[in-house]
Amino acid sequence: MELLDLYDEKGNKLNKTVERGKQLNNDDYIMLSIVFIKNSENKYLIQKTSKEKGSDYGTTGGHVTSGETPINCIIRELEEELGIQTKKEELKLIATHFFNDKHCIFNIYLLDKDIDINNIILQEEEVEQVMWLTKNEIITLIEDNKFKKTHAKLFQEYIAKSPIKVLFATNNQSKVNRFKKELLKNSIELISLKDIDISIDINENGKTAIENALIKARAYYKEIHMPVIGMDDTLYLEGVPEDKQPGLYVRRVNGKTLTDEEMIKHYINLVKEYGKNGKLDCKWVYGMAVINEKGKENTYTWNKDNFYMVDIPSRKLHEGYPLNSISKYKQLDKYFTDITEEDKEQLKVNEDDVIDFITKSVNN
What we know:
This protein is an alpha+beta fold.
């Protein structure tokens, strides 16, 4: 006989219990816990119950037994049903949901963890199989009425609305930070190559920024099967001979990859040689490719030409963007490194169009 503690409509524990499966009084509630397990590829570990249990799809969870805490219930259920051992500090309580019509209180936990399915030990009388599924694949099961009703509601209410992780295929954290804050407002969480344990040798042999962005995005999408952003840029300097134009090779000169300090020195020399009065007009052309969860590809290009480079560097250095230290906006004659939020308003400097492109590409 399995006893369950009873709770009131606010979740306060009452000093009484009930046998599982017995009818509840109108004012009594029982408590359950479930956990959504998400891996680094943004997929969720979903289980299919045994034929005896209805062959429904859902996540791991169960009733909180008398004297048991909600989090201990999850730890127990994970070990019993899947043979997965976990610790309290790995589990994050993301919500508590009341089903008043069912007199149930659900505690919803999230576990971010990479788990090898081959190491899972199924409790065969409860679980038939497990699989990693994307949000869209789970939503399809829900629409086909193959997902447990309560689990479906909780997934749609709390998990489907959580930020979508998108890999920005770069090691340049400054490039990630350039878009990260605004994208998070749109429920998109950017991660960089430093956040994943994968390294790919990519031959970026495209002739344009867009082509190189696609090459990067495709390579990482093929490897990790999660939404990916690839980006590259091209720099043109007015009056500089073709053989000295940086083009796609902004950081590479004569086969050498320059440090931030070496870049500043190299471009200052170009300003001195080809500029006028210590200034050299420039133009950035950016290319971006986004591959979403379904594998759909979208590309976008934009440019910036409202600036020039100078032969005297700013005292500030933006790590990852060294040329900001010798770039000035024409309208204000002010270094990129010194621009304030008020300046941006005056200059109308923003990349809202890029944020909009990424958001639509990821979600379509």
